[in-house]
Amino acid sequence: MAFLPPITTFAAALLLFLHTPLATSSPLNLTGDSLSPYEVLQGYNFPVGLLPQGVLKYDLDESTGRFHAYLEGSCSFSLEGSYQLKYKSTISGIISNNRLKNLSGISVKVLFLWLNIVEVVRDEDELEFSVGIASASFPIDNFYECPQCGCGLECVDSKGKVSKLRNKSSFSSI
């Protein structure tokens, strides 16, 4: 079975001021409440587009990497008309440099089934998303923008411009 989403799922689009990932070999010093959840992602070498726009708050235990991100409510959208993603109001997991594991709160529709995304691993300029039984890899530049709940990355701005996600992926079964 092939897995088909960019996510965000934990999937892809938010900050207008953050369009490039932070290339660091180790996490930022994340103490204090001044960093946004998107900046925390970048501190662990991930792009901001793994989370949808509108994360209200987060908590992070730096000693274990255990985190929770909180949205106002559940969030769903389609990307490129074929990838359906759902975020629960609480997303959790364990974050470390180049790896998100034990994820909960993010799912992708594959054929007729909703599958939970359980891990995201960065390998150079690729992100590999795993649902346990299958995985899919996508170029990291697909995740430089955060998706918006309801419309994903194909949202019309005030000038009538529609942004589009470039879809380049490779699939593998585990």
From TrEMBL:
Protein name listed in UniProt: DUF538 domain-containing protein
Keywords tagged on the record: Signal
Keyword Nucleotide-binding applies: no
First and last residue of the signal peptide: 1-25
Source species, domain of life: Eukaryota
Gene3D superfamilies cross-referenced by the UniProt entry: At5g01610-like
InterPro entries recorded: At5g01610-like, DUF538
Pfam families attached to this UniProt entry: DUF538
